[in-house]
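How a chain folds remains the central question behind the approach discussed here. This step matters because it turns folding into a mapping between discrete strings. The sequence in question and its structure tokens are set out directly beneath this paragraph.
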Amino acid sequence: MKWIRDEEFIRGSIPMTKFDARVLIMAILEIEHGDVLLDVGAGTGSLSIQAAMLGAEVYAIEKEHEGVVLIGQNAELFGVKINTTHGTAPADIKSIPTFNKCFIGGSSGRLEQIIDALDEKLEAGGILAASFIIPDNMVDFRRKLKGLNYSQLEARLIQSSTIDNLGLLKANNPIFIIKGKKQ
């Protein structure tokens, strides 16, 4: 199994889940061989591709044409299959088969409706996780999952920096990652 570094992905102008966050999200989702993952707001597909390399069957929903193209290019580059839908959530969630793991990387202001649609398709015992850069959105997500009686609600803040070639620290944006387990 290989952990893919950021620089290995084909990139465009679409935001990408960075390495540090991606590795933690894989652990939080407890991705393993045989899982079925839905990646909502999949961007460049970095998370989807890493999950597929861990043995998950992956479905991705991405609204941007460039993102859909990048997911395809990156899937080919790493030799994995990603079932990609060029569309939006919650509308296109109904066309996805049931899944036991789900990650929300983008919600375009429809977070509550997306969670409701995902809850209908997420298997009992499944894990729903999301990342946020805005604390209020993380609080709304947690409140919604709590209202749906999800258990094992966990939240983390990732704030990492890398050292560039000159030895200077380059800070990445802090990211909140939160998960819940469906009863």
The chain is about 30% helix and 30% strand.
